[in-house]
Amino acid sequence: MEVIPLLSFLFLPSGSTVMMTECTSLQFVSPFAFEAMQKVDVVRLASLSDPELRLLLPCLVRMALCAPADQSQSWAQDKKLILRLLSGVEAVNSIVALLSVDFHALEQDASKEQQLRHKLGGGSGESILVSQLQHGLTLEFEHSDSPRRLRLVLSELLAIMNKVSESNGEFFFKSSELFESPVYLEEAADVLCILQAELPSLLPIVDVAEALLHVRNGAWFLCLLVANVPDSFNEVCRGLIKNGERQDEESLGGRRRTDALRFLCKMNPSQALKVRGMVVEECHLPGLGVALTLDHTKNEACEDGVSDLVCFVSGLLLGTNAKVRTWFGTFIRNGQQRKRETSSSVLWQMRRQLLLELMGILPTVRSTRIVEEADVDVEPNVSVYSGLKEEHVVKASALLRLYCALMGIAGLKYSIQPQTPGLKQSFCLSLPSSWDYSTPEQEQLMVVWLSWMIKEEAYFESTSGVSASFGEMLLLVAMYFHSNQLSAIIDLVCSTLGMKIVIKPSSLSRMKTIFTQEIFTEQVVTAHAVRVPVTSNLSANITGFLPIHCIYQLLRSRSFTKHKVSIKDWIYRQLCETSTPLHPQLLPLIDVYINSILTPASKSNPEATNQPVTEQEILNIFQGVIGGDNIRLNQHFSITAQLLVLYYILSYEEALLANTKTLAAMQRKPKSYSSSLMDQIPIKFLIRQAQGLQQELGGLHSALLRLLATNYPHLCIVDDWICEEEITGTDALLRRMLLTNNAKNHSPKQLQEAFSAVPVSHTQVMQIIEHLTLLSASELIPYADVLISNMSQLLNSGVPRRILQTVNKLWMVLNTVMPRRLWVMTVNALQPSIKFVRQQKYTQNDLMIDPLIVLRCDQRVHRCPPLMDITLHMLNGYLLASKAYLSAHLKETAEQDRPSQNNTIGLVGQTDAPEVTREELKNALLAAQDSAAVQILLEICLPTEEEKANGINPDTLLRNVQSVITTSTPNKGIEEGEDNLLCNLREVQCLICCLLHQMYIADPNIAKLVHFQGYPCELLPLTVAGIPSMHICLDFIPELIAQPELEKQIFAIQLLSHLCIQYALPKSLSVARLAVNVMGTLLTVLTQAKRYAFFMPTLPCLVSFCRAFPPLYEDIMSLLIQIGQVCASDVATQTRDIDPIITRLQQIKEKPSGWSQICKDPSYKNGSRDTGSMDPDVQLCHCIESTVVEIINMSVTGI
């Protein structure tokens, strides 16, 4: 891979003096010796030199002299070998003498001294262990015997430990002759190791290690101590790290702690990475973590792979732990705040190592000299690089990503930017504020570099083999700069680098000038974007920055309309080149494109808009479906493209309606897509396809459902969705298993011939349509024309019910894929056939304007339940469609109608009215339309004259239902009831009641309007029992009773009587009591004629009130007697039979049980009362008596 200038002058920071460790001249325990001690490998120990062995004598002597826990023979042999090793070493004798001391007495004295120090204060010079030193500490140590040497070292160590505990974390350096004299270092180390081993409770090894950090040569003593107790390595390291500083290079104590731990890890390198893990876990001593990584990188050098340093630092900065990221970022920033650094600085060493690794993978043209410690102020001589080997690409990318993290997250600063082989990352690397383009030459270098990358864009795309080009990203950044969306640029940089970095928008000002004025002017961006090829087979699987991102931003900033560049063709081609899973940028692109079509870029130039997709281009997407849903979709374009175009059309129409007023104010009228175009798009079929691809289409399916529910509610009927589940479910799969070749071979022509033979034979058509039920919905589409056009033949008498039910089933299947065209065909096919009169062919638009056309079908349909089911389904759909149509029409004509004085459909003479009035008139029209449909359906429920002649009426049908359920009469009566129940009228009534129930639930105002209009009282038993939602009438019956028209009051009381029986609720009781009170009030105000007209039909309702609510018995009986008395007073001079009737009523009320048997007597019910009188009051009195008797009979014998 050839890449020009890949690296330019990456400066190393100049150094400052760092404290050199004081232990460089001392001999430390080697890793070999430590491993031998850790594993007690006697053979390895025997191979050690005398100086190496001298450091381990305290532990070896204790092993040789102390009783071992291991009593095995092998250890006995190893112990002999250890004794042999120690036999020739002179220092062993002094260590043996140290082990001969009474450590119990020594521990007691040490405890007393600690108590004394605590009592008198840490600074007290009193000592129980060492009293009255005659000479200096070094001379005393030289002249003392073993017990006193132990006491001297123990006293000095305890003093340091006490001072550490009292220092509250503040570091101090303790000068001590005993730990500084090079002559006695080994003897002092022996004493220290023996003391810690024999007095572990008094001298915890972690506390001892902490104290040794405060004396000279403390790291050397610590290593010897741990080497003689190798099992304590991890404990000591964790203790030192836990007690360490968060930033180790900021203080002397931190640096000494880091040096000590580095010495420990050099002694035991196998645990270095584990110690580094402790550092990260505790978020302490970041310099130690980097130093250990540098040591490990040097020891485990790997030329081909990514180094451990790059992996470690990248993990800290790019990991998910924000605490670790902040901690290490602070380490980098603090390290850079020191004005001058030296080569001893861990940060300086890290930067130098990274530079070496970067230079190591780039072949040079001329030699390169790396800065050494002696000349840190001299700039490194870095050559210009010409190429990058293929095997180094991964390593280079990792290094580049690390530099991005160091600069973006940790704030690492360089004087001149590095130009590196990862194009997108290196470009993002140049954006953060850490770069300083201080000279015109550096700015020109940036411009040349960016221009070169734009020029080589096609090469990089073809070489990488991905569709996401670097050129698109540059275009996107340029567009963001032009629209001043600096936060979007920052988000883009962060997403490209895969890290959250802090970039101040103010720091991008110079880069914005370079982009917008020198590289990408707005006109260049716009012209270039249109020429960019669309992404082939665009899907969510293609990641990165694509042309669609650039076009989206240009559309948002209205650059295309501003510079008069047409973008329609590019968007159309991109929509055609889509596949699943859906790319997330497609829907926002369509939305912003629609907005650019309807909304001008500025008010001063209202014509500055984009062009919409033409109707012919839309039809090309749906090739093979010209004429509607009649055949299956051509798969030349993907289902994704077809769904996206459908989304575009629906969203465009919705946005056009929503912006009608705004567009009218600007005197603009964008063209709406014609209804003929919408009729040719298989909307329902596409929605079904989208339903099966919901996961791959993202939010497209839900967006389409929202648009359909708003603009095409008749395509979102719940029953249709349920029906689709049945058609596409498991049963459908089982039926298709039964599909034979004979069923597949039936053609539409054969079906037409079979229908032609229906008057003679039904066998052939039965066989064919039974086979058609095994086909899928899309396979049924070719048979739709023949099936629907012959529906009228099925209305003739003698057609088997099975054929009708099968046709209904096939119609419902077709309704799932081609509902709109199917409905139009069905309405035209079911028109009444009148001789010498040409049938009118209705269109989709006709039926949406007047849905009641559906009910103007052949009267025979009203007694054919399977076809009536289809008719009701269409009626419901067109009522919903009419609402959407009128709402859209109202929005379209809201502004245009006012000046033109044109009459809109259904809004005649109201064009000058305010907008609120237009809305009210539309609602009134819809309410009248719905109520008219309900009234027609209720009229259909009434039996015809022919049916009445056969003894069928709604009341008898209802009673037959009750009798079939409750009767225990002989079988003959049951059979008669079943005959009535199984009639076509009864089934049609059930279908109509189901539809009315849905309409009442959807809009309770329809129920109120219909009942205020009224309908034949013969239908009340049917509607109350057959429509479950009739209980809502209880809400408005009081209002209906209060109407001045007597007919409405009568209808309200009759309706209430049936509702009380059906719904015996507390609310019904209160309304019934109100009705009784109203009847009592009307008794005092009605004339004789009106009294007769009102009470004759309402008195039987009182029986129902008593049956539902016995507590009303007293009120109702009083009302009946009062009515009787009023009537008697009017006819007292004419009829002598009235007073005895009133007397009987009083007696019945007072002693109902005595009259119960008389009431049951048929001779009483049909007795010789004067029924021949034509006087209204007389008839009313007899009606009152019959009502009272019936109530008494019911109350005594039960309901």
Automatic annotation (TrEMBL):
Keyword flag Ribonucleoprotein: no
Pfam families (alphabetical): INTS2
GO BP annotations listed: snRNA 3'-end processing
Transmembrane segments: none
Superkingdom classification of source: Eukaryota
GO cellular component, one term: integrator complex
Keyword terms, alphabetized: Nucleus, Signal
Signal sequence interval, chain numbering: 1-17
Compartments, as annotated in UniProt: Nucleus
Family: Belongs to the Integrator subunit 2 family.
Record's protein name: Integrator complex subunit 2
Organism: Propithecus coquereli
